[in-house]
Design goal:
There is one protein chain. The chain is α/β, with parallel strands linked by helices and 423 residues long. It folds into 3 domains: 161 residues, Adenylosuccinate Synthetase, Chain A, domain 1, CATH 3.40.440.10; 92 residues, Adenylosuccinate Synthetase, subunit A, domain 2 (Orthogonal Bundle), CATH 1.10.300.10; 157 residues, Adenylosuccinate Synthetase, Chain A, domain 3 (Alpha-Beta Complex). The chain is built from 12 helices and 20 strands. The chain starts with a strand and ends with a strand. Bound molecules: inosinic acid (IMP). Inosinic acid binds next to helix 4.
Length: 423
Amino acid sequence: MSNLVVLGLQWGDEGKGKIVDLLAKDFDVFVRFQGGANAGHTVRFADKHFALHLIPSGILHPGKICILGNGMVVDPFALLAEIEGLEQQGVAVGANLFLSDRAQIVLPQFQLLDQAREEGAGPIGTTGRGIGPTYEFKTSRLGVRACDLVHDKALRERLGMILPPLNFLLEHYYKKKPIPAEAVLGKLLEAGSKLKGYLADTCELARSFSGMGKRILLEGAQGTLLDLDHGTYPFVTSSTCTIGGALSGSGLNHRDIHACMGVVKAYTTRVGLGPFPTELKDALGEKLRARGNEFGTTTGRPRRVGWLDLVALRQAVRLNGVETIALTKLDVLDELSDIQVCIRYREHGTELTSLPAGEESMDRLVGEYIVLPGWQQNTCGVRAFDDLPRQARDYVRFIEDFLKVRAVLVSTGPRREETITAL
Ligand code: IMP
């Protein structure tokens, strides 16, 4: 029983980075299986700050292996910049990093298309990193994969198929200056030559590591409610951030996965547009945003803030087969006298036990709340469950009981040691 999937159960930004970093000592191999540079977390390590977008934080731990899986969409220039940044801060990157030869490549034209769409009708508030178009072209079988970057002829052919219609669209529909193939070909080949040493069949590699008894942590990016199929469509990302993505995006099979842990923030946030039934649009929301420092790591955008939504979380727990959770940012609630938790939705008076599919239905939802007493004491840095105020312990137990999961970690501050590990 060794390989673990760690997934966000809300709209991303649950604090997965810190949890994965904490768990790192017990694992040998770290795999990212979906998303791209739309993700991001800051890890504090040895008194330094590392902003990571593509590479798992396991890279900061000597002797660990990191894999960027086939389910990812990788901007090769962003990856090279991230490697360079790590090296400048004294982190060795070499035989400890592998990039799937099947990972999709984010082209500059995909980023331009992503941004152009966001400027047009019906924006959803993407990160503008080209994630949607890259997955779209992958699904249309028109993507460029990492393996193509090291084959001049293959890359030319791929670009020759992809770019003429795409540039036509950019120029004539979106009124953007198109980026011709010649402007990117040389740069992509150069990036390919620099990344060549990292390329591997990472599915075979992960399987062989698993066979050797090495422990694998599969690290999800974004969160369940941003999942392409199960999230608040169309206000979602374009990848599978739920358990199925861990299999298809890593090449491991269901027998290789032994447990799934969900990461849950003690309240809710989301960036970008879209339904958010428990959103607080008032001064209290502002206060929690400031106290929780809720500003996006990738884009710096202020995050929308709201109460904990146990209905959506129960759906996320069921979808992913989560057995345990890590609860983060409990201390952000310290000053509140009352804490509300959404336990039911109603649409036109009818009770709903999960988020409905339609955008209009989601907007019409009325959340029903239970009010739990706040603790109004400082819990920053508390390291033992019994040292939490009674109301804080009750809050954690209420969440466990409602979701029928066990909380195995509670985070009470950004630092590694500011965590309760025995509950
Ligand atoms: P995209 O992934 O850039 O296409 O953006 C689609 C939606 O997902 C937008 O609402 C983004 O704000 C959101 N999103 C993407 N990545 C993250 C993340 O890492 N944390 C939180 N929200 C994200």
